[in-house]
Specification:
alpha/beta; Rossmann fold; 418 residues; eight-stranded mixed beta sheet; five-stranded parallel beta sheet
């Protein structure tokens, strides 16, 4: 059976594995590699129970077209596009570290050094502007003994996705963003991406550094919008006779603004928004510019956590037991990175409250090393709490509020679901 393209995915994590599975079930043959031997074994043996929606189904359907390899050299052999999706952790300054990207790129370079076949290395991991054009390009050229040009391409192609809807977001993106070293390289990446989309998608192609800036700038603009809506939340909570939802819904009708991400509620969190905002601040300061706007967004988000904590403290005295409903950073995932619920819990603990939690996504916070008591059921949380805080939308809010009313519990629903 002929395949549309031979592709490689380096890094089979929360983003890389869904991408590999989608590519493999869309007519391509895909080889993947991950540094984690246990992850490779889990995928290869089929003994997986991933929480990302539809991922297990796609992996089941791709057992003949997705090969998990034990080395990068095996994975990239014969590939026309090599997607690099490895972690780029934030440093103390807020910028992203390219350590893992560079390590992967050097291994890729070694593997393709004896071939002159056209191949594109496509960096999907979020990196700082000028990373691809400078140190990543240098690492690829030195390790491969080849120059970026007619047969070796370098692209930057970040995804705009959210955990809990990764596969849907890849199938129905707002756009494909491609930074390219040359037109033919961008053509190959665009060709691969078109195999997984389920509608016509606008494509924006530009140089590598422009695309790197677009990625973090988009997320910072969204966080500014969230922070602005939450500022209105604070105004409405402080003054009388203001329904913040009426206010934001009217503001969102202005075509210059729009309603997306204008819901006044919990602070923003997760693995992307906070760190991309800080990365933009780091970029500004590193090139001698003021980071006042991006830094103010980050500060406003921190202040919103404090404001919510004060609301709770005004409603119930210290020493009380506060129940948190939902500690994952959003519905549809167990990820707790920069979770608003956990951020609120930390402030409450500092003010001598006891905090317990229940999560309808089965998220846990053992990794945070916090003295939070876990409850296995919604009913246990409600019965054992003096006051309830609903920190993110629940999957079944109706059942929750019915139980709240039955047990005569006061609560604060940051998302006003009922």
């Amino acid at each position: 059976m002929a395949h549309l393209m031979n592709l490689a995915v380096i890094g089979l994590g929360k983003l890389g594995l869904p991408l590999a599975a989608l590519l493999a079930t869309s007519g391509n043959f895909v080889k993947g590699f991950d540094l984690s031997a246990s992850q490779r074994e889990t995928i290869s043996t089929g003994h997986f129970e991933f929480t990302e929606p539809r991922l297990n189904e796609l992996l089941d359907a791709s057992h003949e077209t997705l090969e998990v390899c034990d080395s990068i050299s095996h994975a990239v052999e014969g590939a026309s596009v090599i997607f690099v999706i490895v972690p780029t952790p934030s440093t103390e300054s807020g910028e992203f570290s390219n350590e893992h990207v560079l390590s992967a790129v050097r291994e890729i370079g070694k593997a393709i050094s004896k071939s002159n076949s056209p191949v594109v290395v496509d960096v999907v991991s979020t990196v700082m502007p000028n990373s691809c054009q400078n140190e990543i390009r240098v690492a690829l050229e030195e390790s491969s003994s080849r120059k970026i040009g007619k047969t070796l391409g370098l692209c930057y192609n970040p995804e705009f996705i959210a955990l809990g809807s990764v596969i849907h977001d890849m199938e129905y993106p707002d756009m494909h963003l491609i930074g390219e070293s040359s037109e033919w390289a961008g053509d190959l990446v665009e060709q691969a991406l078109k195999t997984i989309t389920r509608r016509d998608v606008p494509v924006r192609r530009m140089n590598l550094t422009e695309a790197e800036l677009v990625k973090i700038a988009v997320n910072n603009f969204v966080t500014m919008k969230i922070a602005y809506a939450n500022m209105l939340f604070q105004v409405a909570a402080t003054l009388e006779n203001i329904d913040v939802d009426i206010v934001t819904s009217a503001i969102g009708l202005d075509s210059r603004i729009g309603s997306k991400y204008l819901r006044a509620a919990a602070p923003y969190g997760g693995p992307c928004f906070p760190r991309d905002t800080r990365a933009l601040s780091s970029l500004f300061t590193s090139i001698g510019l003021s980071d006042s706007l991006s830094n103010s967004t980050d500060l406003a988000n921190e202040n919103h956590i404090k404001f919510i904590s004060r609301i709770i403290q005004e409603k119930v005295s210290s020493g009380a037991r506060i129940g948190l409903a939902g500690i994952s950073y959003k519905t549809g995932t167990t990820v707790i990175d920069e979770s608003p619920g956990i951020a609120i819990a930390k402030l409450l603990l500092q003010n001598d409250y006891e905090v317990i939690y229940w999560d309808d996504e089965q998220a846990t916070c053992e990794s945070e090393n916090l003295p939070l008591g876990r409850r296995d059921t919604m009913q246990e949380l409600i019965v054992d709490s003096d006051f309830i805080v609903i920190s993110r939308p629940l999957k079944d809010p109706i059942s929750f509020v019915e139980s709240l009313k039955f047990n005569d519990r006061e609560y604060l629903d940051l998302w006003r679901q009922f």
